Amino acid sequence: MTTNQNALITLSASEAAEGLRNGDFTSEQLTQAHLDRIETTEGTAVDAEDRSLGKTGLNAFLHVNAEQALDDARQVDADRAAGKQLPPLAGVPIAVKDLIVTTGQPTTAASRMLEGWMSPYDATVVQKIREARLPILGKTNLDEFAMGSSTEHSAFGCTRNPWDLDRIPGGSGGGSAAAVSAFQAPLALGTDTGGSIRQPASVTGSVGVKPTYGSVSRYGVIAMASSLDQVGPVTRTVRDAAALHEVIGGYDARDSTSINEPAGPYLAEAEKGATEGGLKGLKIGVVKELTGDGFQSGVSQRFQESLELLRAAGAEIVEVSTPHFDHALGAYYLIMASEVSSNLAKYDGVRFGLRKLPEEGPVTIERVMSATRAAGFGPEAKRRIILGTYALSAGYYDAYYGSAQKVRTLVQRDFTNAFEQVDVLVSPTSPTTAFKLGEKTDDPVSMYLNDIATIPTNLAGVPAISVPAGLAPENGLPVGVQFMAPVKEDARLYRVGAGLEAALQQQWGGGLLDQLPDTESLIAARTQGSAK
Amino acid sequence: MTAITRDQVAHLAALAHIEMDETELESMSSELDGIVGAVQSVSAAPIDDVPPTSHPLPLSNAFREDVVGETLTNDEALNNAPDAEDGQFKVPAILDED
């Protein structure tokens, strides 16, 4: 039986960093191994003329940055050979969600609107990973402007789930999650507005963290909904997420919502949580409103098993009620869409991006804008802009946007009350395992329901992590467990997340991704199947 | 309370500067109707006397020191422009010709 086992690509980032320090291999070898894996698992363009059809394989990357990544890797190797002091993760490659701007390679937000656009500056998080000397493998696929829960709204074709190529990898950050779970990259950056890091992590068997709002800079992150957006790590282990969070976190004067306090330490907390008895004294609240009805049976089953393991590891488990979470989804979609309608107004064909002339009639600037936005935005972006325009318009503002903002207060209060009773909260990350590609594209409301467990944290700004909890017995697909902590208490997530991870891995005899089917065989089988 | 009409969507699309054909207006109005139906329960939440929250953190305006820093050069700023002339963005006529 073929497997994904390859000495270099299956290492966690922490293991790879140690191997580099010990001189077991070079960053060039490590980076090349990942580029090779990308080459063999991405697939080829379905139609060379039409990028919207995507690729035959994972299609996790919109751009592969091979030459620059290898140059950076060789520079790290040279500096190490010269005995220079290097940051802890130096030489470990990383993938970056294509919503985060980078110099030297295109940034598209998976939209036709920005096809071919080259950012004149680096996002702060990109600057930080460059300073930490992580070679950038490329830019990962997403739902257009990060709007979606399946990556099917990408203008450049959907990303496929490495567990089953006919299923969604989650969204919006399906590219980053697929890349990390399929061993194309040991680390990735994502963004999370309503679950876009955590839900993809959940359905691909990887780890994803949405940090406290304001604790990681948003400078250079293409804005979707500014009061909700946050950058965070996508990894295969909790420890790696903690290490990457330490790299990207911290104050940034260029983000006016940045918290002026140092980030971390997180790695030490992850190590503490993974040790024997590391969860003793921790009080965990099961969110009553985010369990039971509406959750797939295998999801609930793995969730209950995780609770047992946490209890066995020394944590106290109680039930907590957050009565207003029932209204959170509605509030989220109104607030998010309202902010979207404002943030996306800048794509008008004047200063950058697409410009489309009207097909007939006079060429005035207003008509050029309307033609440009009609051609540049996909259906989901248009839906959200129109919904936001509606929610903010005179006569409807109080009933929709105004009410949603008040519900936001109630959701925040629910968290405050809950955290007076417990240290962290827990729920399944997503109500279901990965669904089939195309299953929900015609039904926006059922697509939105995927975010039911992840959006309350974005409304309140609190941090959360998704940790793999095993495979659902009914379909063999990954299930995720979500922990939530009070604002600025991200460290607790790493402690409890690492504790659960250690207990589960002891049971499995390794990581969940050791059980991932061989990606290259899956792609070959699928390509042959469709050729018949 | 809902029932979003085709004409309403046409008005919203005009406000948002997105050209839409008849098919798109029809499908958007039925989709939007479904979405609004699903989210309007917010007004039924117990929100009387609850203050609105626009932002998750209690932040006031953050200002940097008023000093000259690095900025994009004129060329860098125009590099991605669909059209430019004499160091400026070039746009079609602002007013109708008539």
Kindly describe this structure.
The complex is a heterodimer of chains A (532) and B (98). Chain A is an alpha/beta fold and 532 residues long. Chain A has a single domain, classed as Amidase signature (AS) enzymes (Alpha-Beta Complex). Chain A contains 17 helices and eleven strands. Chain A has an eleven-stranded mixed beta sheet, with helices on both faces. The two termini of chain A are 24 Å apart. Chain B has a domain of 37 residues. In chain B, a hairpin with a 2-residue loop joins strand 1 and strand 2. In chain B, helix 1 crosses helix 2. The longest helix of chain B is centred in the N-terminal third of the chain and has 18 residues. At the A-B interface, helix 10, helix 11, helix 12, helix 13 and helix 14 of A face helix 1 and helix 2 of B. Chain A: Belongs to the amidase family. GatA subfamily. Chain A: Its EC number is 6.3.5.7. Chain A: InterPro entries: Amidase, Amidase_CS, Amidase_dom, AS_sf, GatA.
Report the end-to-end length of chain A measured between terminal Cα atoms: 24 Å
Q: Could you tell me the mean pLDDT of chain B?
A: 89
The number of distinct β-strands of chain B equals 2
Q: How many structural domains does the protein architecture of chain A include? A: 1
How many strands, which pairing sense, and closed or not: the largest β-sheet of chain B? 2 strands, antiparallel
The H-and-E topology of chain A, N to C, reads as: HHEHEHEHEHEEHHEHEHHHHEHHEEHH
**Spatial sequence of strands, sheet with the most strands of chain B:** 1-2
Helix content of chain A: 25-40%
> The CATH topology of chain A, please?
Amidase signature (AS) enzymes
Rg of chain B: 22 Å
Helix-strand pattern of chain B: HHHEE
Q: What percentage of residues of chain B falls in helices of 4 or more residues?
A: 25-40%
| Global mean pLDDT of chain A | 95
Low-confidence stretches of chain B: none
Beta-strand content of chain A: 5-15%
The CATH homologous superfamily of chain A: Amidase signature (AS) domain
Q: How many individual helices of chain B? A: 3
Task: Describe the strand arrangement of the main beta sheet of chain A, using strand numbers.
Answer: 1-3-2-4-6-5-10-11-9-7-8
How big is the Rg of chain A?
22 Å
Q: Tell me, what's the shape of chain B?
A: flat
CATH class of chain A: Alpha Beta
EC number (chain B): 6.3.5.-
Pfam family, one (chain B): GatC
GO molecular function, one term (chain B): glutaminyl-tRNA synthase (glutamine-hydrolyzing) activity
Catalytic activity (chain B): L-glutamyl-tRNA(Gln) + L-glutamine + ATP + H2O = L-glutaminyl-tRNA(Gln) + L-glutamate + ADP + phosphate + H(+); L-aspartyl-tRNA(Asn) + L-glutamine + ATP + H2O = L-asparaginyl-tRNA(Asn) + L-glutamate + ADP + phosphate + 2 H(+)
